[in-house]
Design brief:
The structure holds two protein chains of two kinds. By secondary structure, chain A is α+β, with helices and mostly antiparallel strands. Chain A contains six helices and four strands. Chain B is mainly β. Chain B has three helices and 31 strands. In chain B, a hairpin with a 5-residue loop joins strand 29 and strand 30. Classes of the chains: A alpha+beta, B mainly beta.
Chain lengths: 178, 417
């Protein structure tokens, strides 16, 4: 009973202080001059918007399931050439897009953390564009593809080993609409 | 009754915890020291009445020591600082200080160089201490001090699968950190306006890059650019009316200038290479930027009137993120040599390039102090991202230990008053 009250008091106290902390000097959600969105409030994580892994929506794509489910493609240091081993998977997803013309994807370009941040954004975009161009060459409607480069701002493996760096240098294909 | 007592207790406990977090310091740590520094004596300030919570003597001592130009001395020094802090009413203080020279040679009569008096409230004592450091520094070196400037940087907090990005502004010594923007999506490339009142930055909220300008004191912000593709690397012109930026709406990243009054864009580079990280010359006539047109990233100079481009950097296989010293005679940049990324400085007159950081870990994002005396940058300490500072003459290197999370992508403010 006593404990319950203490917990209640604690929650209220926490809220009051948290509100105070939020509203003090920083940016508040919904106060943008241009009526834009507040990143504080509900700027959702990018990863949450994909279709589920291993779903079987690709039945009609004609490619093997595994190939369609492979949606992360890795790159060499400072390079934006697609590896031979990834071309089958990218083709399977291209086929899916061509047979599902309302489907849409985002191609996220990423780099490892070394080097200059804005240069890495440019490098990440080159990687994502390499995948986008490959798909367009296969016949995918460009309207179905959006490219965004995060550079080194969303690392796959925040460690500093060569293995971590390899996991970071990637393009991730995300379905935003099936 | 008991409950109320507990609540009060908890409130105090929480307040203590929160205020600790809010004012937790990035206390500076000298990691390379000091040759050719001027010895100076700083006497503990006399306090009359209730002593304030801020240690004014220590703040001044740390400022001068961390500048690399001064060495604190107890005995033999030519210059000496004394001061008095008098409580004149509750939380109101009169602070006076003197800077006197002529203590080394006893035959000369001491000469008063500075003698000033201020009245401030308790929460202004810290910034007053920095102001006094600025006055002493300028008197003795002839160069304006940077102790009242601020830093902007990005804190990345990872916990499990979720990552939080906070754009923060703090004092130059890491104290008084305050959030400008908190997001679950990346924030990068903060850039101060020339009056220090606004910060431009890139935010990836809603899964695309956009450039915003935020008022530092009110938190109000404006969307500046959200074209298809990259919206990056904002840089304010010296007159504060234009923003250089990078857009890839043409297909590849190119440099543009936006007139902030009319929002009109002028495209400056028109090619299929990477062109990014524009930075203005002090006279506003040219930009330096990073391009891989030679195969590797190197620094180029672009004449805004003629659009002529010439290569600036030749040392090493990777040079990026360059910016000028305020006199326009040097540029600092990120440089890779034998696999490691260091901060270097290029003398534009002689062509001599010097590496300033010779750490065994990678560094990033050099940003020049407004008096050209130091470079702020991101570095690694025990595998974590923290901020570092190095003197442009290489004499001193400082680390600002991070608090919770990775601290990266820093930008040094201009002079603020």
């Amino acid at each position: 009973m006593l404990l319950k009250h203490i917990v209640k008091g604690l929650v209220i106290t926490g809220c009051v202080l948290a509100l105070g902390a939020c509203s003090a000097p920083g940016h508040k959600a919904g106060q943008d001059e241009d009526g834009g969105y507040g990143a504080n409030a509900n700027g959702g994580g990018v990863q949450s918007s994909g279709v589920g892994q291993g779903s079987n929506f690709g039945d009609s794509a004609g490619g093997p399931q595994q190939s369609l489910a492979k949606r992360t493609y890795y790159f060499d240091y400072d390079k934006s050439q697609i590896r031979e081993g990834d071309k089958a998977a990218i083709s399977s997803n291209a086929n899916y897009l061509m047979s599902h013309t309302h489907a849409k994807i985002i191609l996220e370009g990423h780099t490892d953390p070394r080097g200059s941040r804005e240069y890495n954004v440019a490098l990440g975009e080159r990687r994502a564009n390499a995948v986008a161009d490959f798909m367009k060459d296969k016949g995918v409607n460009p309207e179905q593809i959006r490219v965004v480069s995060y550079g080194a701002q969303r690392l796959a493996a925040p460690g500093r080993t060569e293995h971590d760096f390899q996991l970071d240098r990637r393009v991730v294909l995300v379905y935003t609409q099936k | 009754m008991i409950i109320r007592k507990y609540t009060t207790l908890l409130f105090i406990l929480f307040a203590a915890l929160f205020s600790h977090t809010a004012f937790a310091m990035l206390s500076m740590e000298l990691t390379r020291g000091v040759s050719g520094a001027m010895p100076i004596i700083i006497m503990p300030f006399d306090t009359q009445g209730v002593p304030p919570t801020e240690d004014v003597t220590m703040i001044i001592s740390n400022d001068l020591k961390n500048s690399g130009r001064f060495k604190l001395s107890n005995g033999s020094a030519d210059d000496k600082v004394t001061g008095i802090i008098k409580e004149i009413s509750p939380n109101r203080y009169q602070v006076s200080f003197q800077l006197v020279e002529g203590f080394k040679g006893k035959e000369t009569k001491p000469n008063v160089l500075l003698n000033r008096k201020y009245t401030v409230s308790g929460n202004e004592l810290r910034s007053l201490a920095h102001h006094i450091s600025d006055a002493i520094y300028q008197q003795l070196t002839g160069v304006r001090g940077i102790f009242s400037t601020r830093l902007a940087y990005v804190v990345v907090q990872r916990s499990g699968d979720s990552t939080k990005y906070v754009l923060e502004v703090s004092d130059q010594d890491g104290y008084n950190p305050k959030p400008l923007l908190t997001s679950t999506d990346p924030i990068m490339s903060p850039a101060w306006s020339r009056d220090g009142k606004r910060v431009a930055y890139v935010s990836f909220e809603n899964q695309h890059a956009a450039i915003y300008v935020e008022d530092v004191s009110t938190g109000a912000r404006q969307l500046i650019s959200e074209f298809k593709g990259i919206n990056g690397a904002p840089a304010w012109s010296p007159d504060g009316r234009k923003l250089a930026l990078v857009l890839s709406k043409s297909g590849t990243p190119n440099i543009y200038i936006m007139d902030l009054g009319t929002r009109q864009l002028t495209q400056l580079t028109h090619d299929y290479y990477i062109n990014t990280e524009p930075s203005w010359s002090p006279n506003g006539n040219s930009l330096i930027f990073t391009s891989n047109r030679s195969g590797n990233p190197q620094i180029y100079k672009l004449n805004i009137a003629t659009k002529a481009v010439s290569r600036v950097s030749y040392e090493g296989s990777y040079n990026a993120r360059a910016s000028y010293t305020p006199d326009g005679n040097h540029i600092t940049m990120l440089n890779r040599d034998s696999g490691l990324y260091n901060i270097g400085i290029l003398d534009l007159d002689t062509g001599v390039f010097r590496v300033l950081t010779n750490s065994s870990s990678d560094n990033e994002s050099p940003s020049m102090a407004p008096n050209g005396s130091m470079v702020l940058f991101g570095t690694l300490s025990s595998g974590r991202s923290v901020l570092g500072m190095v003197a442009t003459d290489g004499s001193v290197q400082i680390r600002l230990p991070g608090r919770n999370g990775e601290v990266q992508d820093p930008a040094w403010s201009p002079f603020l008053s």
